[in-house]
């Protein structure tokens, strides 16, 4: 099973200020101009993101693109990597029109520094976390955490209470601007081997959890939900029947009555015969990033969100 609205710049400054351990500064990167490492924006067909700069022969996955494309956080690991307590996460950042990085950050004792800070709700960062490991160094549980920022200080991480977190895998939080939380879990009582769930806050607390039901969840693994800021559409990865590969990205639209449309496969412009997962929308929702194994490795791709908007049902237009 695969695990996992803007990012605060002050957070990134604090990361680089005391957890920077290595800077692989290529002078050529400083010549890159513009957001997203100066890369030409993608079309409505998925393209490899920043080849040779971020996407390489090693395994890369995106954590997020923040501050209007001027900061990019991603991980890069060799095949067979198992050192979960020292996960290598890098930051590229544009300052005064010039890009620098990648800066390698090491885990300094706070978990949010390197595990999918996706997304930010105001000054709260939500993420998934896998520690502690068992006696064999294996991941046995995944939980959802959050951390607050107040008066130039980061608070202590807070693990969400039951019924969000259970003894099972509960991970990959995605939140609307109204605070509705989406995540996936392999908890008991689901429809498939992993399902997508939703929790609507009640007086600021998450007191109940709703399985999105058989319209969204199938018999296999439905995971990595990415909800739009207004909650109008949901992108997720699934290995359900009709997929082009091991698992594909799908989109479902919420109707006026609160029901969902049937999930729509995003098609050959985005999916492949390999595996596509970890969808992340940029804060302005112009681009969709995701990971794919189509090139025989784990790479980061991006595509124009217009591809998704074209699939909007006529009843919602």
Which descriptors apply to this entry?
disordered N terminus; 5-stranded antiparallel beta sheet; mainly beta; 317 residues; 35% strand; 22 strands; 2 helices; Neuraminidase; single chain
Report on the architecture of this protein.
The chain is 4% helix and 35% strand. It is built from two helices and 22 strands. It is globular. A hairpin with a 4-residue loop joins strand 3 and strand 4. The longest helix has 10 residues. Strands 1-6-5-4-3 form a five-stranded antiparallel beta sheet. The N terminus is likely disordered. With 317 residues, it is mainly beta. It has a single domain, classed as Neuraminidase (6 Propeller), CATH 2.120.10.
- The Cα radius of gyration reads 19 Å
Q: Largest sheet, if any?
A: 5 strands, antiparallel
What is the element string, with H for helices and E for strands?
A: HEEEEEEEEEEEEEEEEEEEEEEH
Count of domain modules: 1
| Main sheet strand line-up | 1-6-5-4-3
Assembly state = single chain
CATH class: Mainly Beta
Gap between N and C termini: 35 Å
Shape: globular
- Fill in the CATH topology: Neuraminidase
- Structural class assignment: mainly beta
Number of helices: 2
Low-confidence stretches: 1-23
Short description:
The chain is mostly beta strands. The protein is built from two helices and 22 strands.
Summarize the topology.
Blueprint: H1 9-18, E1 20-23, E2 47-48, E3 59-66, E4 71-77, E5 89-95, E6 98-105, E7 120-121, E8 124-129, E9 143-150, E10 153-154, E11 158-159, E12 170-175, E13 181-185, E14 195-199, E15 210-211, E16 222-227, E17 233-238, E18 248-253, E19 264-265, E20 276-281, E21 287-292, E22 299-304, H2 306-309
Antiparallel strand pairs: 1-6, 2-22, 3-4, 4-5, 5-6, 7-8, 8-9, 9-10, 9-11, 12-13, 13-14, 14-15, 16-17, 17-18, 18-19, 20-21, 21-22
């Amino acid at each position: 099973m695969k695990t996992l609205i803007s990012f605060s710049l002050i957070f990134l400054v604090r990361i680089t200020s005391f957890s920077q351990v290595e800077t692989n500064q290529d002078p050529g990167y400083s010549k890159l101009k513009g957001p997203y490492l100066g890369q030409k924006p993608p079309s409505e067909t998925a393209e490899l993101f920043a080849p040779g700069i971020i996407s390489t022969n090693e395994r890369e996955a995106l954590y997020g693109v923040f501050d209007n494309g001027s900061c990019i956080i991603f991980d890069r690991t060799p095949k067979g990597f198992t050192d979960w307590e020292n996960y290598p996460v890098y930051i590229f950042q544009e300052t005064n029109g010039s890009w620098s990085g990648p800066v390698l950050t090491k885990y300094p004792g706070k978990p949010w520094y390197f595990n999918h800070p996706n997304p930010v709700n105001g000054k709260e960062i939500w993420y998934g976390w896998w520690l502690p490991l068992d006696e064999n160094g294996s991941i046995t549980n995944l939980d959802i955490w959050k951390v607050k920022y107040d008066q130039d200080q980061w608070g202590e991480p807070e693990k969400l209470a039951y019924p969000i977190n259970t003894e099972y895998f509960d991970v990959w939080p995605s939140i609307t601007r109204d605070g509705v939380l989406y995540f996936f879990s392999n908890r008991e009582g689901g429809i498939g081997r992993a399902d997508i769930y939703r929790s609507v806050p009640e007086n600021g607390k998450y007191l109940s959890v709703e399985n999105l039901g058989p319209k969204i969840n199938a018999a296999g693994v439905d995971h990595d939900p990415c909800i739009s800021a207004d909650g109008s559409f949901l992108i997720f990865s699934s290995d359900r029947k009709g997929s082009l590969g091991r698992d594909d990205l799908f989109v479902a639209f919420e109707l006026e009555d609160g029901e969902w449309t049937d999930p729509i496969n995003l098609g050959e412009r985005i999916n492949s015969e390999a595996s596509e997962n970890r969808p992340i929308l940029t804060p302005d929702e112009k681009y969709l990033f995701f990971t794919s194994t189509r090139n025989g490795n784990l790479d980061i791709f991006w595509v124009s969100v217009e591809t998704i908007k074209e699939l909007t049902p006529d009843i919602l237009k």
